[in-house]
Amino acid sequence: MNAAIGYVLIALAVLNLVGLLLLFRRLGNATYPASYKEPAAPSAAAPAQAPSEDAVSADALANMLRRLDHRLGDIEDQVKRSPSVAVSTDQGATTDRALALAQRLARQGATPQNIAETCGISLTEAELLHRLHAPR
Description:
Elements: H1 3-28, H2 53-81, H3 91-107, H4 112-119, H5 123-133
Helix pairs in contact: 1-2, 3-4, 3-5, 4-5
């Protein structure tokens, strides 16, 4: 995966987390109708009450935030594992220089594996250049 795509995915996940946090806060600060009365402070003799509808939706949001947090961690790990791609303004010139060096190494008798490692090309390309340019 390209590193830039990984960073975009991380940014989107962070934006989702921020949006969910704002939604969670808004639900927590929601105004209630005038008929709604604040519950009195629980006394020692009062039985435990079942969770209200708001508590259930808050739990669902908390679970969603945890899942998004795990997903964000997975994306970060994936970006760290992917090889970094060097962004060059003159990519064609870099490739031409690598191939020219590979041809020169093949003429000097280097093995295809040494050519591939030195020039950063695939082993198949290195074998082809070795067959074309190696001394006979």
